[in-house]
Amino acid sequence: MLYTIEGEKITKVAYESKFKDIMNYISKQDYDVIVDALNEIIDKSDVHTSSWIPGHNWIGTLFEPIWKACKCNNEEAAKFYGQILYKVMMDRPEKWYFGKYPHAKGKTYFRV
Hints:
This protein is of the alpha+beta class. The chain has helices spanning 16-23, 28-43, 64-69, 74-91; strands at residues 2-4, 9-10, 47-49, 96-99, 108-111. The chain has one domain. Helix content is 43%, strand content 14%. The longest helix has 18 residues, at 74-91.
């Protein structure tokens, strides 16, 4: 379950239509590998900053299919990755909150 820092429950991925469009360019197998890896990472800590998880160079990593699905556009790939992480957080059973903070790009998620 995902909530804004103000306590509003999130039930849809931000920019959902664009998310669905790009999902057509990534295989279910690649998507599932990414989701499984994100869940493993999330299980290890109560605080995560989205931009710190995948690193800067995705070539040769499990995140490369995101970059390819976005036609090798780094900015679009970062946004799509953020949407995937957002959905992963929404689908988890425990309560997660998020906010945008000046210390990092992306969103910071924390478990309560």
